[in-house]
């Protein structure tokens, strides 16, 4: 089944070229079916690229999904034309009286800034609080995972000595979570960040459950409230060249950043990246949509409520 998006959205053209079926809102309204309503709060600077990455994964499912794009009203985007935001995006005020099957909150390159000093932090707090009563399952990605764990559970983030960038080997630590069904015992996934969450801090919270990790201190996925909140500290949505683009960008700015590990063929930045996380990304998003959104959300969205 397709995702329902504005046919004029740049992502629609890209997905069509890849053979991914999208459906215009007008046609979707003619079908006697209730699609899953998924809101995407996109706080990445490269919004058009992030839209495409997430929609590509959400479309790889037999479920029909209606996408609603959101951006913070309290932040002026420097990298996305205002015309694009005005045409394709909503603000929180536009949707705060609505309910959604799922919400995705993206990452943002603000890990080195204290949460309270991020320009749109107050607005994000309001949205995260609203999600408890108005969204069945919220998927937090990268910085949003750190922000969500901090806001909901008081778990702090810590600075890394150098940027964590590359493709890392993870291991599943839970065999019963529906989110992990079909996962290999070990799998690859991208990371790109300057801060981290300590495993010991998460283990102190009885409401939280660690699903998979990497290295000695690396957390990757944490679940809360039976999947009502999912925290993913990496970037499974990244496409082949995203880490390369970020690496070149940072070098151009004169930043001292490590070359992404396990990423370029033969660890040679002159050679193309080796994609080894695409299967994991598709399975993760499919499992989230199926087990935590489609099978659990009430048919009548007005019945959604917070579960303590």
UniProtKB/TrEMBL annotation:
Reaction equations catalysed: L-homoserine + acetyl-CoA = O-acetyl-L-homoserine + CoA
Binding site for substrate: 163, 192, 249
A GO term for molecular function: homoserine O-acetyltransferase activity
Pfam families: HTS
Subcellular compartments: Cytoplasm
GO CC terms, sorted: cytoplasm
Catalytic residues in the record: 142 (acyl-thioester intermediate), 235 (proton acceptor), 237
KW Acyltransferase (keyword) present: yes
Keyword Acetylation: no
Classification via InterPro entries: Class_I_gatase-like, HST_MetA, MetA_family
Keyword vocabulary terms for this entry: Acyltransferase, Amino-acid biosynthesis, Cytoplasm, Methionine biosynthesis, Transferase
Pathway(s) it belongs to: Amino-acid biosynthesis; L-methionine biosynthesis via de novo pathway; O-acetyl-L-homoserine from L-homoserine: step 1/1
Site for Important for substrate specificity, residues: 192
A GO BP annotation: L-methionine biosynthetic process from homoserine via O-succinyl-L-homoserine and cystathionine
UniProt-annotated site: Important for acyl-CoA specificity, residues: 111
Primary subcellular site in the record, as a coarse category: cytoplasm
Family (UniProt): Belongs to the MetA family.
Role summary: Transfers an acetyl group from acetyl-CoA to L-homoserine, forming acetyl-L-homoserine.
Protein name, per record: Homoserine O-acetyltransferase
Source organism of the structure: Christensenella hongkongensis
């Amino acid at each position: 089944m397709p995702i329902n998006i504005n046919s004029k959205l740049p992502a629609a053209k890209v997905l069509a070229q890849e053979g991914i079926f999208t459906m215009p809102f007008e046609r979707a309204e003619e079908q006697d079916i209730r699609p899953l309503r998924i809101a995407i709060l996109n706080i990445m600077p490269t919004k058009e690229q992030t839209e495409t990455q997430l929609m590509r994964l959400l479309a790889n499912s037999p479920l029909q999904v209606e996408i609603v794009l959101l951006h913070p009203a309290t932040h002026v985007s420097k990298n996305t034309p205002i015309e694009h935001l005005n045409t394709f995006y909503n603000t929180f005020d536009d949707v705060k009286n609505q309910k959604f099957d799922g919400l995705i909150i993206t990452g943002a390159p603000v890990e080195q800034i204290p949460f309270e000093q991020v320009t749109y932090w107050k607005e994000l707090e309001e949205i995260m609080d609203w999600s408890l009563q108005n969204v069945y399952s919220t998927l937090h990605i990268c910085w949003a995972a750190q922000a969500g764990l901090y806001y909901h559970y008081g778990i702090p983030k810590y600075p890394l000595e150098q940027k964590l960038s590359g493709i890392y080997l993870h291991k599943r630590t839970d065999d019963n979570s529906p989110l992990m069904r079909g996962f290999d015992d070990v799998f690859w996934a991208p990371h790109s960040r300057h801060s981290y969450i300590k495993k010991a801090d998460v283990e102190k919270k009885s409401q939280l459950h660690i699903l998979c990790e990497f290295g000695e201190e690396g957390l990757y996925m944490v679940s809360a409230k039976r999947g009502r909140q999912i925290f993913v500290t990496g970037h499974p949505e990244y496409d082949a060249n995203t880490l390369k683009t970020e690496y070149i960008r940072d070098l151009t700015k004169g930043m001292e950043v490590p070359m992404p590990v396990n990423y370029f063929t033969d660890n040679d930045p002159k050679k193309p990246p080796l994609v080894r996380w695409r299967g994991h990304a598709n399975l993760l998003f499919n499992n989230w949509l199926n087990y935590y959104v489609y099978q659990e959300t009430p048919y009548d969205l007005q019945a959604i409520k917070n579960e303590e």
